[in-house]
Amino acid sequence: MSVPVVLLAGGLGTRLREETDVKPKPMVEVGGHPILWHIMKSYAAHGFDEFVVCLGYKGDTIKDFFLNYRSRQGGVSIDLATGKFDMHNPEEGETWKVHLLETGQDTMTGGRIRRAAQFLGRRRFMATYGDGVSDVNLRDLLAFHEAAGCQATLTAVRPPARFGGLTIDGGRILSFDEKPQVGEGWINGGFMVLEPEVADLIEGDSTILERTPLETLANRGQLNAFKHDGFWQCMDTVRDLTLLRDLWEGGRAPWKQW
Q1: What pLDDT, on a 0 to 100 scale, did the predictor assign at position 92?
Q2: Given the DSSP bridges, would you call strands 192-194 and 152-157 parallel, antiparallel or unpaired?
Q3: Stretches in the chain below the pLDDT threshold 70
Q4: Which 3 state secondary structure label does DSSP give 80?
Q5: How many domains is the chain partitioned into structurally?
Q6: Which candidate, 103, 89, 36, places its Cα nearest to that of 65?
Q7: Residue 81 domain-assigned?
Q8: What is the pTM of this model?
Q9: What CATH number did the domain enclosing 18 receive?
Q10: C-alpha 235: how far from chain center
Q11: What's the pLDDT at 118?
């Protein structure tokens, strides 16, 4: 049975206003490709190639991207008199199946997943946010979830430190540490695996997945954490975006697993 992937791509991205005034946050580009594409490439590299993209803010931009995806991969010959066109190199491109689902601009994360259920049936599914990349092994994540026997598993990560650390003695700085990804505690990094019953805990569009549904599962002992000590980075601010672009352009993008 295939395991589909739900991508939460409907948020406003207010802290990236410079970019998101004209496009949704998942369409902000890193290395000439939307961050959403990077996330999907990571899943596809591990064999997951069916996606439900939950649209909201400026969702038409994401629709246009996928409707014209094949034509961007190669040349096109167009007969303007008839409107017919021929693709050059039609064998190129991805083999993904992508469902683009309008879920409403104001719908919360849980509500978006509940709406996606129409494409999921009663299948186990994976889910993540449309603005974070990681080098997590998604096959290992799925195997961990299956072995644990819980209804939900999320990937726990340690966020990158945003500021350097200072060691101070008597007003004098003894050391300056531009800290890497260490020691700030575990947080929900997305990259979740969920059983279909999880959708039953979501009441409607206003339900935030991370509140009542996941808290209820935790109270029942049905929420697992897959600890990932490797690379993880959300694209929340201009600083984050600059970091991701620098990594990609420098050929040092840890999340590139394809």
Answers
A1: 60
A2: antiparallel
A3: 1, 89-92, 160-184
A4: coil
A5: 1
A6: 36
A7: no
A8: 0.87
A9: 3.90.550.10
A10: 10
A11: 92
